[in-house]
Specification:
Length: 487
Amino acid sequence: MKIKYIDSDLNPDQHEIGIVHIGLGAFHRAHQAVYLEKTLAQHGGDWMIASANIRSNYSLVEQLQQAKHRYHVVEYADTKTVAIREIKAIKTAYFSGSNDGCAGLLAQMSSESTKIVTLTVTEKGYYLSPLSGALLTDNANIQHDLQNPAQPKTALGLILVALKQRRSQGFEPFTVLSCDNMPHNGERTRGAVIALAQMQDIEFADWIEKTVAFPNSMVDRIVPAVSEQDLIMIQADTGISEPTVVKCEQFSQWVVEDHFPAGRPQWESAGVQMVDNVSSYEMMKLRMLNGSHSLLAYLGYIAGYQTVAQAMQDRDIRAFLEHYMMQEVAPTLPYFSQSELATYCQQLLARFDNDSLQHQLQQIAMDGSQKLPQRWLSGLIELQNKSLPAPAIELGIAGWIVFLSQAKEKKQKINDPLEVALLELLHRHSSSSKGLVSAMLQRHDIFPTSLSTNHPLIQRVLNLVDRLSAGENIQRVMRTAFQNKDK
Ligand code: CS2
């Protein structure tokens, strides 16, 4: 194995904190923190990160604190090449589930020196209806934040408390930068923050609307959750033995709308693309990469595979993904030429082949209700409007329903914020796939009306659910999906 060790020469003692990050997971450590490390080393500036976990994973915060916030990112290009970076861009870490941690985090967010608050809290961490983007005002955590504004449980609540304190002290607001896989993630975050503020104080909500910037961004790097087995593999490959290590692919991309009234780091020097508008990048990535991931997650799982790279070895699955990207996504991406999309598609297939990542399909399968609207369904509506067929997306929807049914039968947990509602549907329609498919497609927080009223579509999804549930070979189902379409 070829190992390249990369040290940025960053001296953390020479830089102050300018960014607070909420969501100290593997993705943040292998993406934003790496860009910041490079930027600070090249350009300097007071842009170190104070990083926080809100309610889960106290041990990670503690482990990072013990390691003086230093950790390694191990980038696997393929099985034979590895690059290791030591990251020092995180200056402090908080766990806001404790009273002290929450107070410390809020003090840092309210400090005049904090110019940007970045977020990776996953789709469900915004408490928005996945389809409409409306705030889930009845959600227990949102209700908690309304009733206990000084001790917020959500990122939205923390942002509000900190903005209010800044305003009362005469400090300018920070910019809020969402780094989650949502369409128009900045606009959605803005909608969520303002909606929560309006439930407390209309005048304050107006002030936010007028003064706080919420640029959109597109983030991309495959960073699987680190398992015990990964820790053993990383130690064997690199000699690094630390609980905070992260592994990821070598590829990384970050496209950010350049709207930071309070200032920002010279991210360009680290390869961040600062643009006027991210929507075309965002749509391409969400539909091509994340859409393919979700197809792999459900269909690959039903086919008996555990990781992305294993499923990619299956010729039928590979051809299916290529068909999905070039026939069902490409027609919905007018900003890119056919050859640009073909190149992107081949790059994605090669990235999915990286078997050192051991990217578990079960991890991607989580939170389907939050992911499918932007990954498959918005594109499906566009295809429907153009009278274009979408056999891959339809099989994906059927795969998701069968995946949920199998989880229920095996009494496995359904990792989804809509778990209770989905389980209720699965129980209620356990003896009728017809009832189940129509009830699923009638969930108007996931499926838009134009899909739930499309009876031929519902019938096709039902046929696919029946075939998959009867145990028909999934590769055969994939092949015939395209044959039928060509007729
Ligand atoms: C994945 C993403 O878990 C998932 O849903 O599709 O985390 C994906 O790996 C990243 O968006 C890649 O940038």
